[in-house]
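Lab notebook: predicted structure, single chain.

Context: the supervisor wants predicted structures on file for every construct in the current expression panel, including those that have not yet been purified. This is the next one on the list. No modifications to the sequence; it matches the entry in the shared construct table.
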Amino acid sequence: MIDKMETFGSSTLQHGKHSDRVYLMSLSRDDVPEIVPYLDSLALIQGYTKIFAKVDSSAVAPFLDNDYLEEARIPGFINGQGETLFLGKYFCSDRQLEKKPDLVQQVIDTALVKGQEDPPTELPGNLLCRRTLPEDAEQMKDLYAEVFASYPFPIHDADYLRETMRSHVLYYGIWEGDDLLALASAEMDRSKANAEMTDFATHPDNRGQGLANILLSQLEEAAVEEGIQTAYTIARSYSMGMNITFAKHGYNLSGTLTSNTNISGGLESMNVWHKPLP
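Prediction complete. Output recorded below exactly as produced.
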């Protein structure tokens, strides 16, 4: 079950029971303030317990006046300028309460300490890292199915992977011979020159080799060639490895989205990290 995409005016949102939320993915300034009561109405009619919204700082006032809370903030999100806020509005006090606060803090503290170390940059000689091709999609969806029991976007669907590969997503993989060991992607918003580094998956038999670090370096290089100025990620707040990976690559922590995303079978909080690209 994947949440559905729709538009309101020129804005894009996703909603559904999978993550039990409305997600305002891209806001057009022309849709403010009318979109604010629409999001409320949608959440209340469908019984969702959270609205998650990415909102440029110039348009944020109507949201904050309507009980949205700032959960993270990324500078330079739109063509290297201004700030974008990641906002949350809760319709259930239970959802607003972090279930594992000590673990979230432990992951953050460890990532910030480990972030002082240099990331591994050498790929073992028997492995190959390259941009994926449409004919790789079947292997890709099989690896994602192996790693994620559930996911907020249909990465278990080869047609979806091929479609996004053609339009706006850079996928890179690491192979040993014919075997795909690890994957990750950069979901680009070329109109705003930012990219979300996401969809990191390493086969359980190949973890601990620093493959995510290699993929992130490759994605950053490719994103710069595409004109991307700001990279960010929404990383699982209980995942020690991924948070350490982004800290080692110079990303700055900007906040935590509480009980935000259904991934690997349940709702999890997510840490937001960001970095200006050269």
